Amino acid sequence: MNVAKVLGRALNILLHPHYHLVNPLRYACNVCGRRTVFVCDQPADRFIRKCVFCRSIPKYRAIVRAVEQHTGVSLDQQMQEGAELYEFSTNSPIYKRYFGRRNYTCSGYFWDKPFGVQVRPGVWNQDCQRLSFADAAFDLVISSETMEHVRRPWQGFREVRRVLKRGGHYVFTIPYNDERLTGSRVDTSGEHDVYLLPKVYHQDPYRRDDSLVYTDYGRDLPELLRPLGFETVLLRVRDEAADIHDDLRPMAVFVATAV
Q1: What is the pTM of this model?
Q2: H-helix or E-strand containing 183?
Q3: Could you give the CA distance from residue 55 to residue 25 in angstroms, rounded to a whole number?
Q4: Phi first, then psi: what are they for 96, rounded to 5°?
Q5: CB 240 within 8 A of CB 249
Q6: What's the rounded Cα separation, in Å, for the pair 36 and 187?
Q7: Other CB atoms closer than 10 Å to residue 245's CB: what's the count?
Q8: pLDDT in tens, 2-46
Q9: For range 180-204, the mean pLDDT
Q10: 4 Cβ contact list (under 8 Å, min separation 6)
Q11: Buried-most residue among 6, 13, 196, 231 (CB within 10 A)?
Q12: pLDDT of residue 11
């Protein structure tokens, strides 16, 4: 991050003190496990507050809470007991907490490098439509805001199911609206993309260009995942003490269990 951006965010924090949650006796981050202060450094997104220690945002705190709610066991305890975790990220707060452990695997999407290889120790370059990992390699897979950018997402979900052990869980967030059905924004049946709807892009952490949104997900997602080998539940996660919410609404987290 360049100096100007750091200074800009620091200025945003100072100019908007009423956007922050600053009582560490009341607030605690469930990712790093610390009593903390949650700060907003992007006033346009005043409810997206980051833990000052691990920089977690509500979506990642919701994912960690969803793991605990669904399995009855905290993510920390599962990792201590040797559960194999794979995450589609190389810069998340979960990555920062567990990177370097033998049972943690992570990957990014570096489009200008070969897929299926390590780009540096412990970090893989993977296209989720054709993962290079063995069948039933993981107990838990995590991603946040990923599958909407996959050109052929159902192939991506199939690959996640393939690398999960039976009974393992894929825990993920995506842009989701339960007032619609899932639909493709782009026809990818051929070699080239055919745009069915106006292009929409989201910020890409791995390259300068933003990422195209291929799929809008809706209330039928659990049914669409069932033929691929998943039983899926939608958890509505909200916790004021950990500042977990989506603009004051519960955060939507999907847990897809491999069957």
Answers
A1: 0.92
A2: strand 183-184
A3: 18
A4: -65, -30
A5: no
A6: 45
A7: 18
A8: 656 656 666 666 666 768 898 999 999 999 999 999 999 888 888
A9: 94
A10: none
A11: 13
A12: 63
